[in-house]
Specification:
Layout lengths: L1 H9 L6 H36 L6 H30 L7
Helix pairs in contact: 2-3
Length: 95
């Protein structure tokens, strides 16, 4: 919300190319990180259960971890893209 208010007070339209692309990347980041929260809870629960029973981590733990790890790359790249767009404010034509 504060970013929107700041952009409006400066006179920038949200339809400007770099702002629209930043917002799109923000949504992409969210789409990758929302499942990660659920996965982290599952990983925690599996680790607690393994620790409580003094048994090794189950295969499901490692499957979920691989998905968690894979989701991190595009989300991190999107955040770096957002940072670059916010710092450089390139002229990007949408259409």
């Amino acid at each position: 919300m504060t970013g929107y208010l700041l952009a409006r007070s400066i006179g920038w339209e949200l339809s400007e190319g770099w702002i629209a692309l930043s917002l799109t990347l923000y949504v992409v980041t969210g789409l990758f990180w929302l499942p990660v929260v659920w996965i982290q809870i599952q990983l925690r629960d599996l680790a607690r259960a393994a620790s409580a029973s003094a048994s090794p981590l189950p295969p499901a733990y490692f499957s979920l971890y691989r998905i968690w790890f894979a989701c991190g790359f595009p989300a991190f790249a999107a955040v770096l893209g957002i940072l670059w767009l916010m710092l450089t404010k390139p002229a990007i034509a949408l259409f």
